[in-house]
Amino acid sequence: MGSLQAAGNCAFLEGRHADAIEHYTAALACNGESRPYSAVCFFNRAAASQAMGQITDAIADCSQAIVLDPNYPKVCMPL
Description:
With 79 residues, the protein is an all-alpha fold. The protein contains 4 helices and no strands. It has helices at residues 2-13, 17-30, 35-51, 55-68. The relative contact order is 0.17.
């Protein structure tokens, strides 16, 4: 689970945003219980979507992150 998120983070930092989205999506599919972890993955996927100009997807993922963990500090920051 964490390795998928780490792979997404690496892909994002390397500018491979589509790959990052795939990794974060896979991480979400494997996570069944942790709301804070899911919030992080949704937020990270939102950042990758925003970087690709997919603003609607980014907004949807940020909204989901807020629902899952309204105290996650990054979710309240602009992308």
